[in-house]
Every structure is written in C-alpha cells, then in structure tokens.
Amino acid sequence: MSSSKLLHKIKSMVLITSSATALLGGYCFYKNDERLFDYVLMPLMRLFEAERSHELAVKTCKYKILPSVDYKDPDSLNTRMQNIFLKNPVGIAAGFDKNAEAVEGLDKIGFGFVEIGSVTPFPQSGNQKPRVFRLIEDDAIINRYGFNSDGHETVWKRLQQLRSHQRYEGVIGVNLGKNKSSEDAVKDYVDGVKLFGPVADYLVVNVSSPNTPGLRKMQQKDTLKDLLVNVVKENLALDLPRPIFLKLSPDLTDTELKDICGIIKKKECKVDGLIISNTTVDRSMILHSQFNNEVGGLSGKPLKEKSTRMISEAYKLTQGKIPIIGVGGVSSGQDVYEKIRAGASAVQIYTSFAYHGPPIVTKIKKELEEILKEQGHQTVQDAIGKGITYQRKSWFGLF
C-alpha cells in the first residue's frame, strides 16, 4: 500500500472514530449519563480555576445547555414547607446562582426549588481572588466570596422578568445579605424584604456567612432580636407576606442555638423556617487536601454530621413546629433521608452539584424514592423527625 493511501486510510479511521466518539458523547450527555459527567466532563471542568468553573456552570444553566431528564418526581417525593408545595425536597443552595441568571435551567435539571443570592442592596465585587478552593480528596470546597452581588435592582429585574413575562411558576427563594460597607445592616435586610417579597416564594435572612466581617455577630441575642422585629414587621406590611427563613451558622454553641430558637418563637420575631446550616470555619476535622488551611467557609462532606446534629437539636428546641431546610454534605439519597429523619422538611445541595454536575440531582431523588419505599413511608413528610429521640425525665422531674 502506498504511503498516500495509508495516510488517507488513517485519516478516515480517525474521522470515523472521532465522529463516533462525538455521537456517543452527545448521546450520553443528552441522556444525562452519570459516567460521562463523573469521568469526562467534570474532570475537564476541574482543569479550570474553581471560580471560572463555577461561572461556566452558571452559564450552561442560564443558556440551558443541559441534558434531558426523563425522571418524573413521584408523589412520594412531594413535601411542604409551611404553605409552599415542593415537587421534591432537593433544592439548590444559595451561592450557586447568586444573581438569578440560571433559575429556569436549574429547574430543568430537576431541583425542587431554587434559592438565589445572597443579594446585597448595592452591587459589590466581594473579596479578592482567588477566593474558591477545591478540596477534592475531602469532597469539599472552601470559599470566601464575600457576597459578590449584582445588587437588588438588577436581580429584582431578572426575577420580575421570570415571573411576569416568562410565567415561571417554580419555587424561588431569595437569600438576603448586607453590603460590606453598610452602616445600617437592619435596613439592608428590610429593604430586601420589601423589594423581593412580591417576586419570591420565600425570603432568607442570611446572618451566618463567615466571609463578611461582623455578619455572624448579628446572630447574637439582642442584635438578632432587633433585626427580626424589623424584618417581620416589614414582611407583614406586604400585600402577601412571604415565609421568612433564618439561615444559621453551624459554629453556634448549644447555648447560642437555644437562645435563637427561643427568640424565633416570640410573636414579634417569629420566622417561618430555619436553614441549617451555612458553611463552617471549623477545621477540627481531618482534611487531606492541598488547600485545607485556606481562610473561608468549608462546605461538603466534612460538614455533613455537624449540620445533621444541629438540625436535630433545632427540631427538638422548636418542638418540630418550624420547618427546617437541611444543608451540608448531601450527596446521596441516604444523606437526604438522614437529614429528614433529623427534622428537615427539605434539603439543599451545593458542593456535590459542583463536583458531579446535573446527574447528581436525579441520582439523589431516585435513591430517596427507594429508601422511602423500603422504610414504609408514603411521602417525605412521613419521615420528618422520625429519628429524633427525646430524653425522658422521671415523673417528679429530679432525675
């Protein structure tokens, strides 16, 4: 065979192989194949710096460059948070879609609800880069974004467009934050309630991010009481008041958590739910990754047990009367089930989505569906708080 014919044959084989590979890859992408994402696409994303990968992920959701999802949520996954109906209990946590750019894409992936933000009154760029670090060996992420936000006005316009022109009916939560340079933090949150109430299904008072100086001090008893009195008052002035959720730090002491649960029961401070928890600054757990000493909030698997324990304590302190959204280390149906048994009505994911992409959502839901069946639960709500045990006291209260 002449060299020219051999070269032509090799080129043809390469073209055929490349075409077949592209077709197979396209088919696997379209079918939301978990292996394609875990072994090809997500490792490719990790070739980019972490924040750049985050930006690309938001863009793919924004422009709906997404795989098809054949899985239909069964009735067993339906649940409620106060008067909010959820088709399934798996939401995307605040911090992924900070500026309400990708809501419809996230809904298409199969999330039961989408929480955007944190949103600050005025645009701000956040902390200096680099500010996001992958801890791959630990299935974790450390971030110190610092509430980078397009600001109230821009984000409100996007949500208004979604609601009024695109007729979007999915559940949207708006996570509210304060500007770093703000001289009146209470006003920042009150303004957020007033503006976003008409376009959100629920609102979140986020006073627990570790990346804004002084923010976590707003969880202190007197400061929190003053904040919630004003937030609740503004919410009740809306034509249609929205459920208010309070997002807490996992680094609270038992006494601090008890104080907060006491405050939120008071009529003038009464919130409609808790989100447990935000990221942690605790590094007492053993971490193996290169960036384990970076400053910022740690999310992912190392946070799982800590957040689940806190959910359980908060559920007991509130007698199960206040819905809880569980966040921290959720990457499987079993993780969701554990948080639900600890008292969560729904959960949110972030880190597992960053590492595994869209297929993780369907995977978690399928696993949860099977677990509920195996455990004899008709719905998610049947399992809420079923893992809680209360300490018994003697009849005369001395032991």
From TrEMBL:
GO annotation, cellular component aspect: mitochondrial inner membrane
Cofactor note: Binds 1 FMN per subunit.
Ranges where the Dihydroorotate dehydrogenase catalytic domain occurs: 77-372
Pfam family, one: DHO_dh
Family: Belongs to the dihydroorotate dehydrogenase family. Type 2 subfamily.
Membrane topology: Single-pass membrane protein
GO molecular function: dihydroorotate dehydrogenase (quinone) activity
PROSITE patterns named among the record's database cross-references: DHODEHASE_1, DHODEHASE_2
Pathway: Pyrimidine metabolism; UMP biosynthesis via de novo pathway; orotate from (S)-dihydroorotate (quinone route): step 1/1
Subcellular location: Mitochondrion inner membrane
Keywords, in A-Z order: Flavoprotein, FMN, Membrane, Mitochondrion, Mitochondrion inner membrane, Oxidoreductase, Transit peptide, Transmembrane, Transmembrane helix
Record protein name field: Dihydroorotate dehydrogenase (quinone), mitochondrial
